[in-house]
Every structure is written in C-alpha cells, then in structure tokens.
Design goal:
Radius of gyration: 46 Å
Structural class: mainly alpha
Number of helices: 3
Strand content: under 5%
Helix content: over 70%
Length: 119
C-alpha cells in the first residue's frame, strides 16, 4: 500500500505541530489514534465476516457434491446382493455336480451287479 518512512512521519508531525499548535496536538493525536483503531477493528471484522462467508459457501458446495454422489451404503448393498447371487449360483452348480456324481456312482454300481449276476 503506502510506503511511509521515518522522515515522512517526522515531516507530518512538524506540519501538524505548526498547523494545529502545541496545545491541541496531543488531543488531536489521541483522537486520530482512536479513529485509526476503530477503522482497523472495523476492517478486521469485515475481513473475518468475508472469510466466514467463504468457508460457509465452500462447505455448502462440498455437501452438495457429497449428496450427489452415491452413498457408501448403497454401494455396499449392491455388492452384497451381487455376492449373494454368485453364492446361490455356485451352490446350485455344486448340487447339480453332486447329483450327477451320485447318479454316475449308482449306474456304475448297477452295472457291476449286472456283471456279477451275468457270471
């Protein structure tokens, strides 16, 4: 912003002393300091309000993005249902294979008994 050095401040003080006078200079300096402090506090409060508002907007944006995305619970439910389907298909294939093995074993046993009876 403004680059005010020591000599500029000294020049301002000398001009203020000449214009205002030595009697009223401390009162004017005190009043100027109070106004400067109030201005700084007002600026810092406005800055804090703006930062709070920006954070609130960012939080709203993040919440909206999360609401649009698929929830973890939905993904888990879909995965569970898919796994249950695979489990049922596997069990039916195993049962079919076991039944086929039993049928083959029974037919072999019948064939052996027929051979024994034929002899």
């Amino acid at each position: 912003m403004f680059d005010v050095g020591f000599f500029e401040l000294l020049l301002i003080a000398v001009v203020a002393l000449l214009v205002i006078g030595p009697e009223r200079l401390p009162t004017v300096a005190r009043t100027a300091g109070l106004w400067l402090g109030r201005g700084r506090r007002m600026l810092s409060s406005v800055k804090a309000d703006i930062e709070r508002e920006l954070k609130a907007e960012e939080l709203k944006r993040v919440l909206e993005e999360q609401a649009k995305s698929t929830g973890v619970h939905e993904i888990l439910d879909d995965t569970r249902s898919a796994l249950n389907e695979v489990k049922q298909e596997t069990e039916s294939v195993v049962k079919t294979a076991e039944q086929a093995a039993r049928d083959e074993a029974a037919s072999e046993a019948v064939a052996k008994t027929e051979k024994i009876d034929a002899k």
